[in-house]
Structure formats: C-alpha cells, structure tokens
C-alpha cells in the first residue's frame, strides 16, 4: 500500500460530532506522521445531495443524541453546550473559514468557530460571533466580512461540498486518506489503525 500523502478532514461546525473529532484529529495526524488538510463543506448540501438526514430529525436518534454527545465530551474532557441556535445555519461561518484559509488561518478558525458553537453555545450565524472569532485568530473582521461574500468564496464552498459527495461523503465529519473514506467521530480509532498500517 503506498504511503498516503495527507489526511483530509471535511468539516461543518453545525455538526457536534465534527466538533468532537476536531479536538482529536490534529494529534492523530501528528502521531501518524501525516499532514492534515481541513476542508470546509456544507453538511446541509451533502444531506440534500445524498438523501440523508441529521440524526436530530429522527425522533429516536434525537433523544439518544444528547446523551451520546455528553458521553463523548466527558471521554474527551472537552466542554459541550448545546446552542440555543441548534440546528445552526453554518453557511456564513464556512465562507469565513475559506477566507481564513487564504491567510493560512483555516485550521485556527475552524477550531475557534467550533469551540464557540459547541464549547460555549454561541450562534455561529451571528455576525458579531463571526467577527470575534476572526479576530481571535488574527484576522481583520471587516475584511473577512467583505471577502466572504465574494463569488469565488461561495463557489469554493460549493465545490468542496460537491467534491465530498462525489467521493462518497454522506455526513460529517468525513475523512479521506486517498480513496479510503472514514465517517464519524467514532471511526477515529479505525482511521488511526489504517494510517498506522499504511
């Protein structure tokens, strides 16, 4: 098996399991000796393209979801607070993440926006929250707010989403190592084993 060149992490801050995975994925990549590429994509667009639905939209899964998330947060020793704005509209934060990538702050912004949403329960569709998050990683809030409305940023988010779907994604988080796909926070041990065997 050829040595994989990178680990791609398709993420959307609206997904609580993506937040959980984000608290572990950098260490996993470092321990595996592989570079990590953060890829913002629109989970709602993935659901629409694949006919999938969020777990919270299924009554039995929704009831289980809250307890399951708290168990994972406890296991990982990370804060988890369900936002009042759940389910979130993440389009603006994803566009801002793409702007952050242009200044090599994509991963820092991704971590910060997910921590704001799931760690602090803040509304990631709120312009003030986006501005504060941008500034927390060294970006100029007004510049980000203007740039994220550019057509090429909108097109890039659509392209990332379409690419993920074309490669087999149906939810978040989704990880790719070449053609090998892993879905879900709970697949991190399988992803780690795969990388160790590669």
UniProtKB/TrEMBL annotation:
Family that this chain belongs to: Belongs to the GST superfamily. NadH family.
Primary enzyme class: isomerase
CDD domains cross-referenced by the UniProt entry: DsbA_HCCA_Iso (cd03022)
Entry EC number(s): 5.99.1.4
Catalysed reactions, semicolon-separated: 2-hydroxychromene-2-carboxylate = (3E)-4-(2-hydroxyphenyl)-2-oxobut-3-enoate
InterPro entries: DSBA-like_thioredoxin_dom, GST_Kappa/NadH, HCCAis_GSTk, NahD-like, Thioredoxin-like_sf
Key word ATP-binding present: no
Ranges for domain DSBA-like thioredoxin: 7-196
Keywords of this entry: Isomerase
Keyword presence, Flavoprotein: no
Pfam family, one: DSBA
Listed name of the protein: 2-hydroxychromene-2-carboxylate isomerase
Single GO MF annotation: isomerase activity
PANTHER family: GLUTATHIONE S-TRANSFERASE KAPPA, GLUTATHIONE S-TRANSFERASE KAPPA 1
């Amino acid at each position: 098996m050829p040595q994989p060149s990178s680990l791609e992490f398709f993420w959307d801050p609206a997904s609580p399991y993506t937040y959980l995975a984000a608290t572990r994925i950098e260490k996993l990549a470092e321990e595996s000796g592989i570079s990590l590429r953060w890829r913002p994509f629109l989970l709602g667009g993935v659901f629409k393209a694949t006919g999938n639905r969020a777990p919270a939209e299924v009554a039995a899964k929704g009831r289980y979801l809250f307890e399951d998330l708290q168990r994972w947060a406890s296991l990982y020793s990370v804060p988890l607070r369900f936002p009042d704005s759940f389910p979130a509209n993440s389009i603006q934060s994803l566009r801002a993440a793409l702007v952050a990538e242009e200044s090599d702050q994509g991963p820092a912004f991704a971590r910060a926006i997910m921590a704001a949403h799931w760690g602090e329960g803040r509304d990631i569709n709120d312009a003030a929250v986006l501005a504060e998050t941008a500034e927390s990683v060294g970006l100029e809030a007004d510049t980000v707010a203007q740039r994220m409305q550019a057509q090429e940023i909108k097109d890039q988010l659509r392209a990332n989403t379409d690419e993920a779907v074309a490669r087999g994604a149906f939810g978040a988080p989704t990880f790719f190592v070449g053609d090998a796909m892993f879905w879900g926070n709970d697949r991190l041990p399988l992803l780690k084993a795969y990388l160790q065997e590669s």
